[in-house]
Structures are given as structure tokens and as C-alpha cells.
Amino acid sequence: MNRTIKTALVVVALMTGAVAPAAAQGRLGISFEKRGRDREIKVNVGLGRLPILRPRAHVHTDCCRRWVPPRCETITDKVWIEARCERIWVPPAFNVVTDACGRARRVCIREGYWNIIQHPGRWECVTRTVHVPGRWETTCGR
């Protein structure tokens, strides 16, 4: 057998095996052509009309929707607190002293002053409560 004919038959055999489900449904057509003295062999394989698979259209009904009631949620945010200086008044210190005659007197042993404390910046967690309104939720996944 001619090498071209063998190649054509192998191609037909492979295509027939690949489209066997279509052949089982009667939609497979194979034809050979040979014209005159030319060494040309044409192999035509047709599968007919294959159905196009489309998903069915989904119509939302009341069963597809669910009411989610309103609620309050607590949210925690990380907030940067700036550095600050704080002035604190330190009152004067007094002491009771007795003199040579035995009389008690109040004596200031330290004057009052302002103490300045520097607080560095820091991250702080702040919680707040927010209201989340109710909504309809689709439960069918489409």
C-alpha cells in the first residue's frame, strides 16, 4: 500500500476513535476522494450538528433571599497617640519646728514647683461600636 494511503488511514482511524461518541449518535460522516491520476486523497470527517450546552437560566425567588437583621459590631482599631508634655504642680513641703521657748512654728522646707513629664508617642487599641444596617442576602450562590 502506498505510504500516503497508509497515513490517511491512520488519520481516519485516530479521528474515528476520537469521535466515537458522535458516531454512536449517528452524526459522524467520513468520505474519501481520489481524483484522476493524481496521488491526492482527501479525507473529510464531519461531526454534524453538536448541541451547544448552555447553563439553564436561574430566576431568583423568595427562597433565594434571606434577611440579615441589623446588629451592632465592636471594632478595634490601632491608633497612634502623639507624644505630649504634662505639667504637674508639686506643692511646697512644710515641717513643724519648735523653738527654744517650746513654741511650734511651721517652716517651709521646700518651695512648690512645676514638674514636667514627657510622655512618648505610642500605639493604642481603641474599641468602638458601630451599627450595621439590615440587608437582604442572596443564598443561592448566583
Roughly what is the average pLDDT, rounded to an integer? 79
Strand order, sheet with most strands = 1-2
Q: Helix fraction?
A: 10-25%
- Biggest β-sheet: count, sense, barrel? 2 strands, antiparallel
CA-based gyration radius? 48 Å
Task: Give the overall silhouette.
Answer: elongated
Give the DSSP E fraction (strand runs of 2 or more residues): over 45%
Describe this structure in words.
- The chain has 142 residues and is mostly beta strands.
- Helices cover 15% and strands 49% of the residues.
- The longest helix has 16 residues, at 3-18.
Main attributes of the structure:
single chain, 142 residues, mainly beta, two-stranded antiparallel ribbon, 2 helices, 10 strands, elongated
Furnish the topology, listing elements before pairings.
Layout lengths: L2 H16 L1 H5 L4 E6 L6 E6 L18 E4 L2 E11 L2 E7 L2 E6 L5 E7 L2 E7 L2 E11 L2 E4 L4
Antiparallel strand pairs: 1-2, 3-10, 4-9, 5-8, 6-7
Quick summary:
The two termini are 59 Å apart.
